[in-house]
Amino acid sequence: MLRSTPGGVGRPRLARRIAVCFTALVVGSMAVVTTPQARAADGAQPTASTLPSVLPNPQEMTSAGADMSLSGKVTVVAGADADAKAVEQVVSVLRDLPGAQVSVSRTPDASGDQVWVGTAETTPGIDGLVASLGGSKAATLPADGYVIASGRRSGHNVIALQGKDARGTFYAVQTLRQLVRHDKVASVTVRDWPLMPIRGGIEGFYGIPWSHQARLDQFTFYGRHKMNTYIYTPKDDLLLRAKWRTLYSGDDLARMKELVEGANANHVDFTFALSPGNDICYSSDADFKATIAKFDQLRSLGVRSFYIALDDIEPKFHCDADRQKYPNNGDGKWIADAQADYLNRLETEYVKKNGLPPLQTVPTNYSGSGEDPYKAEFGTRLDKDIRVQWTGEGVFSPSITESSVARAAQSYHTKHLYIWDNFPVNDGRRNRLFLNPLTNRDPNLYKHIDGITSNPMIEPYASMPALANYGDYTWNPTTYDAKASMSAVLDELAGGDKATRAALRVFADLNQSWPYRTPDTHAPALTAAIDAFWAVRDKGSVDSSLKDRLAAIVRLPEALAGMRQQGFFQDTRPWINAASQWARAGQHFVTMLDAIDAGDGAKATNEYLAAQKQVDLAKRPTVDDQGSDGVLHKAVIVPSVGDGVFDAFAKKASAQFAAFIGARPASAKAYSGTASSSMGQWEANSPSRMVDGNLSTLYWTNVSPEKGSYVQVDLGSVKPIGQVAVHQADDDTATGDMFYHAALEYSVDGSTWTAAGNFDSAPLIKHTFEAPVQARYVRVRATDANPGAQWVKIREFEVTPPVGVYSTNVKAAEGSSVALAFDGDVSTAFRAATPVKAGDFVSFVPAKGVTPRQAIVVGTARGEIQVRSGQTWTTIGTISDGAPFHAFAVPAGTNVEEVRLMLAAGSPAPVIREMTVVDRELKPVPTPTPTFTAAPTSGSSTGDDHGRPGYPTPTSTPSHGPRPALPSTGV
Prior knowledge:
CATH class of the largest domain: Alpha Beta
Low-confidence stretches: 2-49, 922-927, 934-971
Structural class: alpha/beta
Shape: globular
CATH architecture of the largest domain: Alpha-Beta Barrel
Oligomer: single chain
CATH superfamily of the largest domain: Glycosidases
Largest sheet: 8 strands, parallel, barrel
Strand content: 15-25%
Helix content: 25-40%
Number of domains: 5
Mean pLDDT: 90
CATH topology of the largest domain: TIM Barrel
Number of helices: 20
């Protein structure tokens, strides 16, 4: 399904095309009384009046007295046919109690405490025991319901765990697990049942499939959280789709058998979903028999629930027999009729014949509540017992309302609608984790649907928080509390250590933004700390909350290493490490800002560079990926963590540093041009939006690029080019829909191309030419296919002329340019290709309107800094120590027309990040006696010297004094 389409952010390509061309669980009449619950404060001894916290929230729970201490002899009374897994888990829970000596018997032992387990049929006498303890027997409950009753009999504690059925018995044990507090068991009476009969997940995403062990662990987790459904439809299993007619064999068959057994043991329905729609002949007896053969093989392994997935297919026939039997009248009914007849035959001739639960399906048009011919025909013709899945008003549903569901059920003409909910799936944003809770699902949906399955993330264990939310919501949506549900599952995954629990909450806070939610939430705790930091900084005071928060994030790799659910730690490790690196960068930025306040340019620069180093580490690709070819690609995705809040803080802090040193870009207006692409467009997002001068609009492809795919700008004629900047994805700092492997190329005729550079996993493709080049055409070409079949977004494709305010005769290293020393971005640098030769220099003309009081060099270079007035060069300082920051006072009254760094011959190849001037006085420093030269020497320049004088004979100048306070304006 296009649940989170591989090409990007859930673009429902086929769904929209099809939409153009063509459930209720009845418990509303039951008395549902949910007793408010209060979590006992840590360390407080519970009393009869406090109820334990149980999730999902029981429909009814009341106190039956003081907590019970089950120590000494404890007999688990269970009939021979009582659910074995439930009995096993009861024994495990009881043996963890101090002093409990647990045994299992078919008959009670009056000499000790007793815990009865089973249904009225499997454990004789449990009905009477429940009644004697003040409970109502479970026989009148819906499927999966259970009763817990407790009290004292003959001086001993007695607990009854009675299920409506085996699964209900198992769920009673899951509640018992939560009744244990302070080594005692809460004495309560519980009467509980689910409001939705289908509760669980569907492994239906693109990308790296879950491992065999992860699936088994999911079943254990589902069982504990009272979820009963797992739909098996991983995209890596070719025997579900491309080779759907082929039976399993060998290791594949053995693994499948183990999965089915693992699901059944935890009372999870393993639903086998076949996807034959890409090549099936609906009216073919051979294909019908192939379907039956596949189902029969799975049924022999223990599968009883079957599903036909008709999503993600072209609305077309694949055989003449279908075309003749179902003529296309242009109304969408033809494909609906063929699909419904195929499904009905399966339901009648296989499912009902073998006494199986009703067949399930997802139609080709699976979203939106509005009516259309396909939905009406499909639903009207379909067997009324078949369950129909639906994703909501869109592929992603920020909210699902009762009215929307009611309309959808009417549009599909079904009483058995249930939801395929595309949260927290991340296959369209594989750089992200979604650890925000499930919200905006109407509490009354259960009146209209059979249930919900969540489409989880590529990371199975990181999906557990959201899956637990679904377990809590689908069991009892009327009392679902998103915050409490998320808090409980995070504690469960972290384990009992308070510090680990706190650390996991810190990490979860960094992954709260779900882009389909309005308004969206961005790392709320980190955001609050940053907002407080800026607020007090603007007032000249101090707030420690940000420093504390950053310190906690820095410690995450160590703080979470011992968490209980190690699978979660391993799943999220790339994001945990990146968060720690971002936080270290944040610490350096905070120290940098303090140095700026103190006027300490050297410290501010060192801290900025240290911060940038951590940012660079955080932006390394460390997440693996897998495309439709099934090939695993190691470390190709940059993990995005912090919901953009880290990036925003870094940008703001960096801007203050740039202002502090007077850095601003020497820029030129981009050329106008005509954009084109070898790929198609998604909706109205045309190639022309790449060159409209607006970063808020974009060109968006409707396919993933293959090797050789390109986007291109035609300037109309051959022109000099100084720089190209291609803004991809949704932001310059985060990967998303973009070229992941690209070459930047230019041409004068559109036939012969010259390479400018290669870029991998770069949201911003930016290249500044060492010397201007002549070209009419500039393009970005894919050098390889995108991982995960990601589509491409280009917000702006800027081609700009050269800027003539700087000049040098030093050859730049490959991929570098002298322009990078004047781009206003300290994170970039001009890097020389070779050590310095005599006469090497870098110079620039200060911007108009700036009266230079100080010249600044950020970078590692050696030589003399000079200023020119008229024909006279004056040396105002010498750089000899290799430090990354130097500032020199300009003699008062000097009319500075140009600034030059005359590099010291024989010194190492310079790295110059920025050269600037600022127009404020420094703190008092010794004023050197300037040296002058008026007679230029000859030389050459790679830039435009505008007739300025050449190179003087270097002269010696005293070094500058104490580090000055720097201004916030510059070149």
